[in-house]
Each structure stands twice: as structure tokens, then as C-alpha cells.
Amino acid sequence: MKLKVFLVFLFENILLFSLAQNPKIPFQKFQKTEINPVLSADSAFVFDCPMKGEPVKWQKADVFNPAAVVKDGKIMVLFRAEDNPKAHLGGRTSRIGLAESTDGVNFKKYPTPVLFPAKDGFEQWDAPGGCEDPRVVKTKKGLYVMAYTSWNYDTPRLSMAFSKDLLKWEKQGPAFQKAYDGKFKNMASKSGSILTRKEGNEYVAAKINGKYWMYWGELGVNLAWSDNLIDWYPELDESGNLKYVITTRKGMFDSNLTECGPPAIITNEGITLIYNGKNHDKPEMASNELPTGTYSVGYVVFDPKDMHSVKKRSEKPFLKPSLPHEVTGQYKAGTTFSEGLVFYKNKWYLYYGTADSYVGLAVTK
Questions:
Q1: What does the CA dihedral 44, 360, 145, 171 come to, rounded to 10 degrees?
Q2: pLDDT beyond 90 at 90
Q3: Which helix (H) or strand (E) holds 12?
Q4: Can you tell me the distance from the alpha carbon of 97 to that of 115, in angstroms, rounded to the nearest whole number?
Q5: Are 104 and 363 in contact (CB under 8 A)?
Q6: Within a 10 A sphere around the Cβ of 43, how many other Cβ atoms?
Q7: What's the CA gap between 347 and 128, in Å, rounded?
Q8: In whole angstroms, what is the distance from residue 295 CA to residue 246 CA?
Q9: What is the largest CA-CA distance in the chain?
Q10: Mean pLDDT score of the chain, rounded to an integer?
Q11: Which of 138, 192, 246, 315 has fewest C-beta within 10 Å?
Q12: Is 284 left (phi over 0), alpha (psi -120 to 50) or beta?
């Protein structure tokens, strides 16, 4: 048994450090596409809501905050859709829809949501606010894993779901409900970016030292581990509190929040995590290069030998609001909020939410 464990450890670490075919992401080469946004709300889509017992125009209000994966030669985007444009910010019901594209820009939406509140035993977490802000990875065995936010109008919770085809999802419940005897079960949590690596021609969930890893959080970035991709254990400091690997920085683009973006990736530069920084609402705390409250996109690179150790962190965002639809809508302070990143036809495609209203796209040239 000890020999088997050692061989697994050795094999995983050989893969970890043999990274010559995993070039770093060229952040400064991202350019917003001419067609932008690439996805928007559409009241023509109707869904029979199992909670309300009636037809609902499930993407009438807004479509934003997308995950992305490559499947069968297509880019598949899983987007957050809200139903009621008259409801206040945070008071609508969110459902997760699916769209596909062969060029990454022009999408065909599937008619009904693929993840939504239902009378399925998880409504205590998912209803009435819904299922929000997905991040999706694939395992070596072809299972799709989604980390999303369950919103019950009380406490947002990072939750997990599994699928074999991106269409039918099996919910697993809150990620932290079992950790440390339920210590973090009722804590607000969101934004789970599971660690991935390139294997062949695709990126899959990676193990290091026999465990899966996930960066998560918004007030600061924490690291959690799991044996099964269902039950996650946040890392704690000596006092039993959450141990942060990065936190906010006064006077910078991430002075108010550091919220994890797409799944983290192992490259030859290190473990690369794209994250969304919010500029502080108070001018004395905020960066003077962005309007207060603005969401923009930066990155951090961790040492693969020590997933807590920062090798590099962006001083300025590489993506920020500049287009009209990025500074209007639900969140008028300005938003580029990344959640989906794929490598497709020799380019990186970064999908992001704009002002909680649309899906935008930036591509490396």
C-alpha cells in the first residue's frame, strides 16, 4: 500500500513539473471581440418552472457570468440567466443555461435551463434565488464538475454538481457542509476555481499529492482540497480561521474584493489563477485609475511546489470595462467579470459577464 501511494505521488508530481507543453497565458494579448456581447437576454425562451408551477421566461432579464468548456469540437458556455427584469438586484431567480458555438463567437442556445431550483431536496439552498455563477471542469474520466452559488435569499453557498453530458446535472449540495463538523456550513461562500492541467489536447481536473484542489472566495482567496470533488475542506490557520493566499490591496484595482474567476491552470509559469478585482467604493481606499466600484480582471501565479506562495501578481487589470454595455445594466459602476476560459483553435477565449447583464468575450491574437 505504501508503495502504491508513493507511485501515485511520484506520477502526479512528474506530470506537475513536466510543463514544457503548457505555455503561460499571454494576458496582454487579450482583445475584446468585434461582436460583443456574444450572449444576451431573450424573452422568447420559456421554461415550466417546477417551483412556481407555471411557465417562466427564464432569461428575460439578463444573461451573464458564464463558464466555458470544449466538448466535441465546440465551445460550450454555461451562462447565468435571470427571469424578472422588474425585481431588484439580487432579488431575481437565476438559472443556468447552455449554449454552443463552433467559432466561439456565434452561439446557439439550448431551449431550457440545465441547472435550476427544483423540488429535488436541494431547494433549501437553491430557492428562491436560484443557481448562480458557474465554473466548470472536466475530469480524466469525462465527468463534468460544476461549482456554482446556491442562493436562498439568506446565505450564498458554494455548491457542487456533476454531469456526463452538460445537459443533465446531479446536484451534490454545498461544498463545505461536511468540513470540520459543519463549521462552515452556514458561512457565505462562492466562486470555486478547481485546479486543472493540460492532458493531451484538453484541460482536466488535476491532483497534487493525491488530492483535488480549489481556489475559492471573494473577500480573500482561500485554498480547499477534496478527495471526491464533492466534499471540500478549506485550509485553516493555527487559530482555526480561513487561511488566505491573497487578499485585497489598498489603492489598487482589487482594493475591495478578490473573487476567483475561471478554473486555475497549471502552466510552465506556475499555477495561474485569473481573478476578478473590485475597486473599493470609498475613494480613499480605491485605485484612482478606475471608477469606484468597478470590477476588472487580473491574475496571480502561485508556486506549484507551494500552492500558497505567490510568484507573480498583476499590478493592473488586463481586462476592464470599456464598452457601453459594460458600464450600463444592473451594475452601472462597470463590470468585466471572468468565469470561463478555454483554449480553442490555438487561441485563448475568455468569457466574462458585463454589468450583470450580458456575456462578453476577449480572445488572444
A1: -40
A2: no
A3: helix 2-17
A4: 7
A5: yes
A6: 12
A7: 39
A8: 17
A9: 61
A10: 93
A11: 315
A12: alpha
Q: Which domains does the chain have, with CATH numbers?
A: 2-364 (2.115.10.20)
Task: Tell me how crowded residue 55 is: count the other CB atoms within 10 A of its CB.
Answer: 10
Neighbours of 72 (CB within 10 A): 6
244 — pLDDT class (breaks 50, 70, 90):
very high
Fill in the amino acid letter for 147: A
pTM passes above 0.70: yes
pLDDT at 13: 54
* Cα gap 340→78, rounded to integer Å: 9
Nearest to 38 by CA among 364, 361, 320: 361
Strands annotated E in 10-168 = 30-32, 47-49, 54-56, 62-71, 74-82, 94-101, 108-109, 130-138, 144-151, 156-163
Given a contact cutoff of 8 angstroms between Cβ atoms, the answer to whether 291 and 281 are in contact is no
Q: Which three cell numbers stand for residue 137?
A: 471542469
Cell numbers at residue 329, please?
445594466
Place of cell 488586463: 318
**Which residues, other chains included, contact 182 with Cβ-Cβ below 8 Å and sequence gap of 6+?**
none
